[in-house]
Amino acid sequence: MNTYGKALQSLRLALNGPGALSPETLAAATMIHQTGEAFFLNMGWSAWKAHSDGVAQLLIRKGLPNLGDKLDVTATLTNQSLMAGYELQFPGETPFSSAPWKEALEQMRRISLADEGLGQDGLWVPMTELLEHCFYKRVEWATVIKSAHADPIPYTDRSKEISTHMWQALDEFEAGLPEYWAYIRKNVGDFGEVADPDFFVRKKYWVAPGPNSRVVAEYIFNIFYMQLMVSRMLYDLGVLYGESWLDAIKSKHRELSAQAWMLIPHIMQINPFELQEFMPIFYLSFEGADEIEQKNILDAAEHIDKPMRRFGQNRDELHCGLLSNAKFMTGKP
Asked: What is the rounded distance in angstroms from the CA atom of residue 300 to the CA atom of residue 317?
């Protein structure tokens, strides 16, 4: 039996035993879900979906994590993107957007930040709260956008309301970034922009080597991921309702995309196996890229996906996948 099979067999035994809802079982299921494709390279969509469903159901059955148990906190927090995806796909049908879960996730993030040595002077709090706010509101926003595409008129007022809210969020991101970047450089690790005439953006992010370099890259990614998410949603609404600010948000999204692409050279140097969470940057920026930029984005996406052979995709299928994932994430049909 191969390594994947042995791991899956052990998990099945645990799920049928007295510790089925323990943090250890959740951690094991999470690890198998996230690494299964690496162990079993011919995994198809149905098998991957079964893994996702299994972890989601385990989280629901297990209930809120024990904030005093580090393994429970880590295993649950690792699945926050999965939980958000399920809430987006099945709004109101899972507990993940309920007040107790939101509070638990917020506390877990604070615990995680404290473990990384952040938050001593509180400087990270405003940006972290803004990121969390947008992370949870995106499900509501995407649901409205999806409904508005089906029938725009009943959602006109609500769409204008969330458009104002999203513009405000983008303004707050822009205003808070200089202080936030300075804090990351001081307390986590150094990084900056450097010229790179061989890269299609002509400049890139440099991240200082060291034990925190991966964390620094994640902080940069998280900022651009959420800004791209919000700006793309705004663009969809602008097109749908013929808003006067359509050109402005198109330009803003383009600017944010170019800044996010500056992470690509650093990403290409990191072990691709660890980088699946970076894919949303490519999803959200791909439509607005020109032909040369799309080629570079696909090169990076292939670099990340190649060891996993994700669902057996070829390059054309990966191209389509980038577009369809962006539409799913932002509520566009």
From this structure: 15
C-alpha–C-alpha distance, residues 185 and 191, integer Å: 7
CB of 182 closer than 8 Å to CB of 275: no
Residues 6+ apart with CB under 8 A from 228: 253, 256, 257, 260, 280, 281, 284, 285
Could you give the CA distance from residue 290 to residue 312 in angstroms, rounded to a whole number?
Answer: 26
Q: Are 11 and 28 in contact (CB under 8 A)?
A: yes
The residues, ordered by sequence, that sit 6+ positions from 132 with a Cβ below 8 Å of its Cβ are 105, 106, 109
Q: Give the C-alpha separation, 163 to 180, whole Å.
A: 25
DSSP assignment of 249-272 equals HHHHHHHHHHHHHTTHHHHHHS-G
Give 164-188 pLDDT, tens digit per residue. Answer: 999 999 999 999 999 889 888 988 8
* pLDDT the model gives residue 115: 64
Distance, in Å, from the CA atom of 33 to the CA atom of 75, rounded to the nearest integer, reads 12
Domain boundaries, the chain: 1-115, 121-333
The predicted-structure confidence for 231-273, as pLDDT tens digits, reads as follows 999 999 999 999 999 999 999 999 999 999 998 888 777 765 5
